Amino acid sequence: MFAPEAPELYPDGAQTFVELTELARPLCGRTRPGHFRGVATVVTKLLCAAKPHVAVFGEKDWQQLTVIRRLVRDLRLDVEIAGVPTVREPDGLALSSRNRRLDAEARRQALVLVRALDAAESAVRAGERDSARLLEGVRREIAKAPRAEIDYAELREPASLAAAPLRLETPTLLALAVFMLPQEPGAAEPVRLIDNRVLHVQPSGRFPVQPTSEEPPR
Amino acid sequence: MFAPEAPELYPDGAQTFVELTELARPLCGRTRPGHFRGVATVVTKLLCAAKPHVAVFGEKDWQQLTVIRRLVRDLRLDVEIAGVPTVREPDGLALSSRNRRLDAEARRQALVLVRALDAAESAVRAGERDSARLLEGVRREIAKAPRAEIDYAELREPASLAAAPLRLETPTLLALAVFMLPQEPGAAEPVRLIDNRVLHVQPSGRFPVQPTSEEPPR
Predict the structure, then answer these.
(1) pLDDT in tens, A137-178
(2) Which of A15, A106, A164, B73 is disulfide-compatible with A102, CB 3.0–4.6 A?
(3) What is the DSSP string of B11-52?
(4) Which of B:17-76 have CB within 8 Å of A?
(5) What pLDDT, on a 0 to 100 scale, did the predictor assign at position A217?
(6) Domain with A135 in it: what CATH number?
(7) Shared domain check, A108 and A179
């Protein structure tokens, strides 16, 4: 197993950093400046050192996955990046090392992330295409959990992370970050949780797309 | 031959940059902001794409060579970086694509770079160890060419490019950058030339180093 310790990855005098521009700016990049610089640098080092054929990253960290796919393409690293669906607790909460820092009540309220994603998905399935109304529904859902405070709730183009248009017409990423607050202010650090879902928006209503072959439309 | 065109190296949406901190700041990094970011990024791309066993870079671009050595180590690229001595015209001028932009008189006066390096080397051989006096000699030499204007003339530690001490005690890089001015102001762009030499300073005088074996001291 290749599991290098920090000194091996960050030798004395190390001063090379890998940075991305657009993809690293929004969402978690806004809340955590420099975070994706660290991610891009260490992932580049690990890929160059281990030279894997395939590297697997979870879709929970969707922005990280897009950053890594882009840097692999840009730097021409010879590796296939495989994104895998988010692994979840039985009740739906996305697995995260941070979950253990939640007290029992915060753990219960943390389900609000999945509920907000579900609500948005249902709304889209029911024909909602208006970004603002979708996000309003998401915020309303999260507001039901008094211990949850929104860091961001945004709709973005899944690959480029560009801001989604006012009226959705293609599959759109709904990305959420929420601080779970301690029972009493200052009693503990807030725990920041993230989750996301690609909302499968189909070109809608007025001008339906006709299937051009015998196959069912996807 | 692998000789990619720009679109292959910089595909649409490319946004990944490789940056170094300390090594990229002084000397040419000061005169040309962003230059070493470009160098580090394209060299990383080329090395990752071509996967050579050995990559050869000239010592004329000494700072570039130190930047590349460092990034290869930091990013753990599996390639040997070979520095090769500067190739020169018969009269000593370092080869550069820019030399052809010099008019005949500027071409003649451009030899002032080599003369300044020679002067410093002679002074060191004669026992000079004082940084300021050495640089004074360099500046005096360059001032003999009225069409040459110093961009920088600096003494630095050859590997780290840290500023050299006031009193030299170890091998030291003398790095020069000089603008060769057009005959008449504004008639053409100044041509920026660089050259360098490692001055082989030996620990001197008062506390001579005794050889500890039968082998001659080097």
Answers:
(1) 999 999 999 999 999 999 999 999 999 999 999 999 999 999
(2) A106
(3) -TT--EEEEESGGGSSTHHHHSTTHHHHHHHHHHHHHHHH--
(4) 17-23, 40, 44-45, 48-49, 51, 70-71, 73-76
(5) 40
(6) 3.30.1300.10
(7) yes
